[in-house]
Write the structure tokens for this entry.
Amino acid sequence: LIFEGRDFWCAVDPILDLEGGTDFSGDSLDLLYWNTRGARVQGRFTDKVAFSTVIYENQALVPAYVADYINRHGELRPNGASYTQQNGVVPGYARTKPFKTNGYDFAFGEGHVSIVPNQHFNIQFGNGNHFVGNGYRSMLLSDFALNYPFAKFEGNFWQGRIQYNTIYAIHQNLYRLPFYETVESTYERKIGTYHYLDFAVTPNIQIGLFEGAHWKRSDSLGSVAPNWLFINPVPFVNAGIMSNNDSTYNHILGLNFSYTFFKNRLYAQAILDNGEFGGGQIGFKTYDLFTPRFDAQVEFNFARKGAYLANEQRYNYS
């Protein structure tokens, strides 16, 4: 459904994804399936405000090796002085509920509002995820994460050659808070702040500097006052003030690089974790290889053991 007027445009779209198959390596040939039903609403008012919102409802019966992974990475419910694991989490999607005998039921939503006050600035609020870099995955900030509430501020200067982004986010750990016994529980939270400064050295060469950090926002007893340094939008200042030895804080620093020539792109990333080399990426992508619309990409990623981890696991860069 599309609605249009002089200064507005809006569309409502149904979403349907039905998949079926079987696992020939399993003990049985039971039907495996994944079905998603949803709806998307998006719109624009004048040339200053735009919005999009999507909701997905899913049921799935997955191969055994996928189910094993989901079941090993569930939420953690308080049980006296320890925790009991239950309700698996599908990577990149959501916490699950049981469906039939050994299936999963899960739902999630995403959306944002984008405001463009002038040609230099863009402000976004919403629930979703982000990506920094050129790779299939990003070592800095990847969209493989579950959706999270965020506020994003973007500035473009010097005819677009300099771009600066700062993102404030609220993430959840898998630890349930003890006061809630409902299925849709409240979880321990942490603050995420991400700063990215990108500079086009030439029309073909781009270099970006990145800072990502996680901050304490709650503990096993509930919400706690945050360290208000997290509000600071100036990149690399907090990394200089704070220490990764602080049990309430964890950060990484990163470098992003890309070089475009003809119909090819060479790209790379490197991360520093606690002042040490934490990992890197190098990749190459070519467009219209041999024939139009045929692209190819090869990429290598490496992370040192222990990279992204904090002294207190609740503030891991995850």
Remarks:
- The first helix runs from residue 64 to 72.
